[in-house]
Specification:
Elements: H1 2-12, E1 26-34, E2 40-49, E3 52-58, E4 67-70, E5 75-78, E6 80-85, H2 92-101, E7 103-108, H3 113-124, E8 131-133, H4 144-157, E9 165-166, H5 175-191, E10 196-198, H6 202-210, E11 215-216, H7 227-235, E12 239-241, E13 250-251, E14 269-270, H8 295-309, E15 317-318, H9 327-339, H10 344-358, E16 376-379, E17 393-398, E18 401-405
Parallel strand pairs: 1-4, 1-5, 6-7, 7-8, 9-10, 10-11, 11-12, 12-15
Antiparallel strand pairs: 1-2, 2-3, 5-16, 13-14, 16-17, 17-18
Helix pairs in contact: 4-5, 7-8
């Protein structure tokens, strides 16, 4: 008993575990367990051994010999997964911001493969941060043969994802881009590389899918997606990594934290770069006089729901942010937009198993189930109620290691 109290006191003294935290055999007791698949256990126990979840059980089970974390009053969820974020250089503040917000896995959105690999390796060796899945750049301004060689070069480095490959959105991608993309997709299948494509119009999204792409980085923000286009996403087993709040205005929120713009506190509606909304939106939709319309926000929200509804299994929408302001407020910004169209159970699926599927790790993360990696966050509240309860992460375990403890 004295030993357990001493461990608890040591953990309470530090919010971020320094250095390489050792994986421990852990019992999380008295937790509301949000499995991620739709199941919620009102009060249960999670047993972790060797960095993996051994059991998830309602009520209590024997915990002798295990380090016990009493989660009374807290909820256990799978660690959040961001399917597209630019993190190719190590930034201690950014990594701390991510892990404390509850993110345990991030797919690097772009940048040189070497930098992404170096970032992954630093974190795996004990630096603070979520698991980083590296990607590598491949552009469409080359011949199909050169593109195939670029894919093989990534595979040779051990990189299993392309960064976002940008297709021309309007009026539609030219055939020259499509031919190169087809070569990338074909070679990637042979090399075991996932192709991630930036397609921000419905024609570009469908063109990418027709070329064999199944991972779309952004929702269309140039137009409304037709029912038939949404059905095309579902029929091909494709999935779109949200970024639902692109274009959605903020009012005096993203004002603190690493990499954040210090916004004036004047109650002016602003875009995510701190400049007045909607004129500052990157690639803004504009009228004939060049005035920004702000339609991006409405398009993404409606398109997300339409693409979601096209699939009876609801596997077509996942989660990403593509923002580098303070991650807790970025999380709030995204979840606010999701909450307009999706239930809390939907949101848990989107940021959990769907996001795990998007990054190619559905068999390892995204739900709290036996055999999966023990990426677990403990939230001080009940995230089945509303999105604000998802902003209260207190404890983070990554592969069974306590890396954050703010109790």
């Amino acid at each position: 008993m004295k030993r357990l109290l001493r461990v608890a006191c040591l953990l309470g003294a530090s919010s971020i575990a320094p250095g390489v935290a050792a994986a421990q055999d852990v019992a999380i007791t008295n937790a509301r367990i949000i499995v991620g698949s739709g199941q919620v256990i009102d009060s249960g126990t999670i047993i972790v051994k060797g960095g993996k979840i051994v059991s998830v059980t309602a009520g209590t089970v024997p915990t002798q010999g295990l380090r016990t974390i009493d989660a009374k009053g807290m909820s256990a969820m799978p660690g959040f997964i961001d399917g597209h974020k630019h993190v190719n250089n190590y930034n201690a503040d950014q990594m701390k911001s991510l892990i404390e917000a509850g993110y345990t896995t991030v797919l690097a959105g772009g940048g040189p493969a070497e930098q992404n690999l170096a970032l992954r390796d630093r974190i795996e060796k004990g630096e603070i941060g979520p698991r980083v899945i590296p990607s590598g750049q491949i552009n469409l301004r080359q011949t199909p043969a050169e593109a195939r060689a670029a894919v093989q070069a990534l595979a040779a480095k051990g990189v299993k994802h392309t960064g976002e490959i940008g297709l021309t959105p309007e009026p539609a991608p030219p055939q020259s881009e499509i031919e190169v993309l087809k070569a990338i997709v074909d070679e990637a299948k042979k090399a075991g590389v996932q192709v991630n494509v930036h397609a921000v119009s419905s024609p570009a999204m469908v063109a990418a899918i027709d070329a064999g792409v199944t991972r779309l980085v952004h929702l269309p923000n140039k137009d409304f997606t037709a029912y038939e286009q949404a059905e095309r996403v579902a029929q091909t087993g494709s999935i779109v990594a949200g970024l639902i709040a692109f274009g959605a205005p903020n009012v005096d929120t993203l004002s603190a934290g690493p990499a954040a713009v210090q916004w004036p506190k004047d109650n002016t509606t602003r875009f995510r770069d701190g400049k007045p909304w909607p004129e500052a939106i990157a690639g803004a939709n504009r009228d004939p006089k060049g005035r920004a319309l702000g339609t991006e926000a409405g398009y993404t929200i409606v398109n997300a729901r339409r693409i979601w509804d096209a699939d009876a299994n609801h596997q077509t929408i996942s989660y990403s942010t593509d923002q580098n302001a303070a991650d807790l407020v970025v999380l709030e910004h995204e979840l606010k937009s999701f909450s307009l169209m999706f239930s809390m159970a939907d949101i848990h699926r989107i940021i959990g198993p769907n996001a795990a599927r998007f990054v190619g790790m559905a068999d390892q993360i995204g739900t709290l189930e036996p055999g999966k990696l023990a990426d677990i966050i403990l939230i001080n509240g009940n995230p089945t109620l509303n999105i604000y309860e998802m902003l209260k992460t207190k404890v983070v375990l990554k592969e069974g290691k306590v890396v954050v403890d703010k109790r």
